[in-house]
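Q: My labmate handed me this sequence with no annotations at all. I'd like to see what the chain might look like in three dimensions before we decide whether it's worth expressing. Could you predict it?
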Amino acid sequence: MSDAVQDEYQGAAPSRPLEVAFAATALAVATGYLVLSTQIPLRRVAAAGQIDARFWPMVIGTSAAVVAVLLLVIAISRPAPGREDIERMQTGGTRRIVLTLLITAAFIGVWSLGSVILFGYRIEVFPVAAGLLMASLMLAYGHRRRLSLIIYSVAVTAFVYIVFGMLLRIPL
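A: Here is what I predict for the chain of 172 residues:
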């Protein structure tokens, strides 16, 4: 690689505090997920040898916590890895992160309503909120083609609703 090209492209600098902060955050999120997975209400207790609604969320949470602990041990005990292959932070990156958090918080707030009565009809909030979540996130990350925005949002929402709401009968 020539010096001119190498000077033009500078990867992100190694950072132990960033690695430790990421691993600690991952551990906190995984632990929170694991705690929440133990609180999933069961319609009926599974018989011995059967899987209930808590099983897979607990497997995922436990696996995530184990991986996060391993990341934390590696981040603390080894030198920070080189990050030459990672680009420096782009302009607008912080704005997108904040938008993602705000959109997700709004989705959770609206989803917690469950259903609403509108013009005398009971309307489930999840399909509408999930579609708006997908469309909002796609717009926040730069997607601008209207037709694919609508098709993708509707398709993902329908898939999630059919699989979890109808087939697995998990209340959304």
